[in-house]
Amino acid sequence: MFTSARGSVISRGLITWAVVAVIVASETVWSQPGTGGKGDYYPLLIGTRWDFRIVVGDQVRGSISEVVADVETINNVPLIRIEAQVKGAVVATEHVRVSPQGLYRHRAQGSEAKPPILFLRYPAKAGDSWEFASQIGTEKISGKVKTRFEEVEVPAGKFKALATVIDFEVAGKPLETTIWFAEGVGKIKQTIGSGDSQVILELERFVLGRPRKP
User: Fold this and answer.
1) For the chain, which residues make up each domain, given as ranges?
2) Which CATH number applies to 2-205?
3) Whole-angstrom Cα distance, residue 104 to residue 161?
4) Residue 131: exposure state from Cβ atoms within 10 A (0-12, 13-18, ≥19)
5) Residue 156 C-alpha from the chain's centroid
6) Among candidates 2, 153, 12, which has minimal Cα distance to 63?
7) Helix (H) and strand (E) counts for the chain?
8) How do residues 69-125 score in pLDDT, each as one tens digit?
């Protein structure tokens, strides 16, 4: 979770479930997914980092970072751990796996997703749509994703981005999030909710990690 300028706390669960719903699409086929190269909309090299500012209404209320932290083997499956950090403290985690079919989310906040959630399907393309249904811990989650391309400007710059619109339900509660991804960079913007309570994450800084030495 993170704290606003007024001292209020935006729920860790809101961020976690929004992250669970992420889907990425592109017009190109990935040759080596996760490395930050051409056609890669979600770099997963260890050390990759995205720093976001948090906007609520028309005010900046804080910051949060997402970091590709490590590779962990859980139930004999190697998974990439991504951490959400506030001022260096880990406030949320997720574990993902990459395969020729796409990227799958296996865990969120330490709880297993049954079945794993496909959030990036290969070959990726604009205008794609599909549905998902899973359970993470005791919470059931289901929804539908639609994708499109559009120009987006954030503090880190201007990008031609993949907009992913996700309408989903968690424990019967309807939620909405839109996430924009840029080639070779990853997530550059995300909106969570709507109206006066909408939370917006905007990329301020991106650092691509480096391949591990054998």
Assistant:
1) 2-205
2) 2.40.360
3) 21
4) exposed
5) 17
6) 2
7) 1, 14
8) 999 999 999 999 999 999 999 999 999 987 777 778 999 999 999 999 887 777 667
